[in-house]
Write a structure and sequence with these properties.
two-stranded parallel ribbon, 13 strands, Thiol Ester Dehydrase, Chain A, 429 residues, alpha+beta
Length: 429
């Protein structure tokens, strides 16, 4: 009896007990009380217990990330090449910072499925080999929406993740947009069920392979600000057809907050007893597991109303980052990047990125180019609607890229941030 009492609140026992009593596990609702608890935690900067995957950018972790998004630019993976660049060594994509932290601890509530639906990035310095990072997280607004995905009701959870290097410098930050829906309601709504898996003929594959071969990578050939024209079209870039292999490669490069092994997983479940997602699979080995399996196993995706496994939202955002770094060349700098995700990118889908230059200007010595970029899928749906992002380019007249200043309010959040355990112990959250 004592041993059973010891583990009574564990996720596995909670699920097993409900299945024994009723034959299924019932998910709790995202009640007003849960929502208010979440809102009470807003605007209180905290340092999470641990990073998700990488605390340091090394030549291997940087290369693994580049390979995880299918980017061959040698600036990110070839040390001999990168030593000849202005950086003197390899640097990372700005979205490499997802490997440090890519979801804010504490969003949502029990019985709620969360998925990344977009973000607004700003970078202030390159991510260099050897940099070590501490994330600072700040929950912001929780906004209720009407949407079919959640059976009529969903929420958007906003929060900043700020990335501070070993010198105390803020390298970048993202305002994350996280979609929330009650798992049971989302599954019943079945908004994204019945979508047939695409098939590709030999002629289709020739077009796909040609598109990959024709992908533009500016590389060491500088793209100067003076040579860019407003209205100029960017060459398309494709990703896909999406496969489980792509998802595994992404995790090999980016890591995961939820994929843990053996004792590490069960210890995590003890701290978070409502973390598991239960599905009607008919398979004894799938009674319940982490919600992240929606990206690998169709049965988990179908439990929340989606026909097949689908990509990670920040994976698609990293492809957008890849699109810009291809275009701007090694000497350019991606300052701002915004993106929203619309259609679920299902296994078998192709994502095609396109863009155009909408404005060029000088901002406090920074030679800026605003680019409107978007993505469509193979069904003609908008995968990512048009958004404006900003690249800083070298100039023949004004010289190399000038990096942007960090807004004071960001440093203020960093200054007052405390470890999350300390905040919990003091009753601050």
């Amino acid at each position: 009896m004592g041993a059973q009492s010891k583990w009574e609140g564990h996720a596995r026992l909670l699920g097993a007990k409900q299945q024994e009593e009723s034959g299924k596990v019932e998910h709790t609702k995202f009640t007003e009380e849960h929502q208010q608890r979440r809102r009470d935690r807003a605007n209180k900067p905290h340092i999470p217990r641990e990073v998700f995957f990488n605390s340091q950018a090394t030549k291997d972790t940087i290369r693994h990330f580049a390979e995880g998004i299918g980017d061959k630019n040698p600036l990110f993976c070839n040390e001999a090449y990168a030593k000849k660049s202005k950086y003197g060594g390899v640097i990372a994509h700005g979205t490499f910072l997802y490997t440090v932290d890519w979801a804010i601890q504490g969003f949502g509530g029990p019985g709620v499925h969360g998925w990344y639906v977009g973000g607004d990035w700003e970078w202030y310095r390159p991510v260099k080999c050897g940099d070590e990072f501490t994330p600072v997280c700040v929950l912001r607004d929780l906004v209720e929406k009407k949407g079919k995905m959640g059976g009529g009701k969903t929420w958007i959870d906003y929060g900043d993740v700020i990335y501070v290097n070993q010198n105390g410098e803020v390298v970048g930050k993202e305002l994350c947009h996280t979609g929330l829906a009650e798992r049971e309601a989302a599954g019943a709504a079945a908004k994204n069920r019945g979508i047939p898996r695409p098939t590709y003929s030999s002629a289709d594959w020739i077009n796909i392979l040609d598109a990959y071969e024709n992908e533009e990578v500016r590389g060491s050939n500088p793209r100067y600000w003076e040579d860019v024209q407003e209205g100029e079209q960017l060459k398309p870039m494709i990703k896909g057809p999406l496969s489980v292999r792509d998802e595994i490669a992404w995790l090999m490069g980016c890591g995961s907050p939820f994929m843990k092994a053996h004792k590490l997983e069960y210890d995590y479940e003890r701290r978070h007893p409502k973390t598991l997602e239960y599905v009607e699979s008919g398979e004894a080995d799938l009674p319940g597991d982490v919600p992240e399996l929606v990206h690998f196993l169709n049965v988990f995706a179908q439990a929340i109303g989606i026909e097949r496994a689908y990509d990670y939202g920040n994976q698609r955002m990293s492809w957008l980052c890849n699109y810009f770094t291809n275009w701007m060349g090694d000497d350019g700098f991606l300052w701002k990047m915004s993106g929203d995700l619309r259609a679920f990118n299902l296994i078998g889908d192709i994502t095609t990125f396109e863009g155009k230059v909408v404005k060029k200007y000088i901002d406090d010595g920074k030679c800026c180019v605003d680019i409107e970029a978007w993505a469509n899928n193979n069904r003609g749906q908008v995968s990512m609607p048009p958004h404006i992002s900003t690249v800083i380019l070298p100039s023949k007249q004004h010289g190399p890229v000038k990096y942007p200043d960090v807004p004071k309010e960001i440093y203020n959040d960093v200054k007052i941030a405390k470890p999350i355990d300390e905040m919990v112990a003091k009753g601050l959250i």
